[in-house]
Amino acid sequence: MFPLNGTMQDQHTPAADTAPGLEALLVAVGRERDKQAFGVLFGHFAPRLKTYLRRLGCDSSAAEELVQEVMLLVWRRAETYDPRHASAGTWVFTIARNKRIDVLRREQRPEIDPDDPALVPEPEESADRRIEAKESSGRLRAALKDLPPEQAELLRMAYFEDKPHSVISAEHGIPLGTVKSRLRLAMERLRRSLKDVG
Amino acid sequence: MNRPSHHPGDTLLIDYAGGALCEGASLAVATHMAFCPACRHAVAEMEAIGGALLDDLEPEPLSDGCLEALMARLDHERPAPCRPAVKPSPETSCYPEPLRSYLRGRLDRDGRIGEGGWRFLQPGMRCMDLLSGPNGTTRLIRMKGGVGVPQHTHGGIELTVVLEGGFSDEFGAFLPGDLAIGDPSLVHRPVSDPEGCLCLATTIGGLRLTGPLGRWFNRFVKF
Ligand SMILES: [Zn+2]
């Protein structure tokens, strides 16, 4: 059912991830239009996407409709998914984020085009510092659980409330300097977890 | 090629990666990213954090039949093409995505922003609106060489990305790709470089709160 042949690009990854297989499932959807694999992905992501959209203010039925739209995009775009660049969760997150900006805010999401020849290239010495998506996602989740609660809480607000950090500061009565330093501290710790190898 | 030395900073990049920034401010941040591999890398990390946070959310079950309804829709999907369709060749443009898309129809044959469509702001300074909405406007500003903007403060938080040429103020020299953040507490007097300056300027939306808290906030917000 899932292509485990030698053409997969991430064979070197040990099967030690906490959510094994999501990436392989996504690749199977992209390569073979594998509906069974898609069903498993739906079972994992759809209920989380519903929570995500509910936190952003959707009522239950609006959230479910939007979840279906997001998962339809997952189906359509699975072929462009590259497990070397992002974990399945990261890739689905970006699709959901862009779709909810489109539907809930009726705005476009300006993004760079990674294939744009006009992009200023990386300095050569850092060209290979790409995040090893699959290996690092487990470590990242562990590091998230270890964050001090006030940092974790702010991080969730930043991702799930559709408000820039300056507005979060004003609405929650947390001084802006505190918001910024908590977010920066959280970033520092999470970055370290992404860089750790092994 | 030189890489920028003035960056949005982690907190603004998190706003962008999480999707909280309005379109105009996102355009400014993403335009900076086209010039800045370091911030591209930081946003990729922040999107990975978004993925981990999503995975961590308490799942909320969907109503019965959601998956079946979606599966039925998949049957009507055309089979996907083997490769993503080749993008139609874009008009010649000197500007990277995502800015390029916002400049469609405004470029001359060399792919630069033409002479038409500008509005007078002050001697030596013209602007062209790209986006306007409840959150403010996003515009291009073109300054001739050596033009000084009168000392001013900002009504909200303004982001300015240099596209060509440059300017200097009390905070340093800003060259192509550099992103300057101006907020209401900041008083500055930028002067364009001798070769002039083309930049993208926008306001961060969602900041003009009303009521006592908003007034307090608008007075004290700092970046
Ligand atoms: Zn940067």
UniProtKB/TrEMBL annotation, chain A:
GO biological process assignments: DNA-templated transcription initiation
One Gene Ontology MF term: DNA binding
Record keywords: Sigma factor, Transcription, Transcription regulation
Residues annotated as domain RNA polymerase sigma factor 70 region 4 type: 139-190
Basic and acidic residues biased stretches: 126-136
InterPro entries, sorted: RNA_pol_sigma-70-like, RNA_pol_sigma-70_dom, RNA_pol_sigma70_r2, RNA_pol_sigma70_r4_t2, RNA_pol_sigma_r2, RNA_pol_sigma_r3/r4-like, WH-like_DNA-bd_sf
Entry-linked NCBIfam families: sigma70-ECF
Protein family: Belongs to the sigma-70 factor family. ECF subfamily.
Protein name in the entry: RNA polymerase sigma-70 factor, ECF subfamily
UniProtKB/TrEMBL annotation, chain B:
Domain of life: Bacteria
Protein name per its UniProtKB record: Anti-ECFsigma factor, ChrR
Domain ChrR-like cupin: 117-201
InterPro entries listed in its UniProt record: Anti-sigma_ChrR, Anti_sigma_zinc_sf, ChrR-like_cupin_dom, RmlC-like_jellyroll, RmlC_Cupin_sf
NCBIfam families tied to this protein: anti_sig_ChrR (TIGR02451)
